[in-house]
Sequence to fold (396 residues):
Amino acid sequence: MAVDWTIQALGAAKKFAKDYGHEYRLTNKQLSASFEVGSFHSLVDFYAQVAAVTPKNLDNGVYKYLTGPGGNPENFSYVEVEHNGETFEIRQQVRVRSHVHHDVCFTPDLVVLPAKAPLFSDVDAEYAAGKRRLWGVSSEYVVAAHECKSLVPFPELLIGFIGMVLTAHPWIGRFAAASEVPEGPHLAPTLFVGGSTQGLQRKMVAALEQTYPVNIVTGLHFGTWDLFEADPPKRRVALLSSKST
Amino acid sequence: MTPAAKAVLAALTAELEWPVRRAVEKRYAGMSSELEYLFALKHSQSQGDAEIVKGEGWTIDRVDVLCALNSFYQIVLGPQGAASRKWRATAFGALEVVHGSSRFDAGRAIDTRSMIYEFERRFARLGFMSDVATAPTAGALLFRLADRFRE
Fold:
């Protein structure tokens, strides 16, 4: 009986590869991009429930996604969010210079900024031998930064995300506890994770969400992507960035 | 690592570029080693899970194939499924997104959803359903498989 089952499994695998191999044959970069685009969809859809969202800076009608920190964000598409008279932008791969130190710069996958947040544009001899500009935005403008990982949520990934959150959001330091952070329309800093949790990892996710004003959304390879009507609800925060435009 | 699981994985990953194939194989190797260990345990929750699934005709060979399918699903199909969701924001319904060398549009999303639906449909017949597809570890997979048979 078991032999029959394994033969069936092998037959199904060969047939699937024959039928769809040409379609699922993506590179590592393309797979990573796919998950990031899915997370981007999810964030845009979250805002679309309460705000007007508009794709901006299109290239002949195509949304040109910034894929790395080397590009000038002004040359790529973004999403404009209008909520109660305030305007924000959802951008991808914008370098953030942290409030903790001028030399601490990093690039979250997705970031929500006040509209027209000023970009710094430095020439640094230690970056691309001074031949390219170092683009970015001060963390003082960051409303929320989000990370996307198409991985199993192992503990070090979760802790790395918390490090990013603390380094990208100066407003977090103003509150002694996550429960003190005022609610608002913005999705709290969120880690989008493809894999699901079990046992201790699930407890760790719950503990981190209780301790910090964050969301850790797991199981996205198979689960719901509806962040707005999620059960239990996803944490939302007010506009807390210390600088706006 | 059992011959059946290795053959299934080889069939699914034959055409993948080396770094992706390596990522799938690495995940599978980790799960398979864990599974072997769990099947050999004498006293633990996982040993109880193994006894339950064995009692239902699930040999280590069969569960190992589920680990291979899980690895392929999580590394290759899961991320593609992410980009194929339907937009709820109407302004984006027909929007094409270009991300480096990748293009994402409504037509491609339909094809991808269809491919993933077919994978789920074809392997569901063999017991590969969402509970085991999303399991983070072999222990979790074994637990979820046993859960189907627990009273």
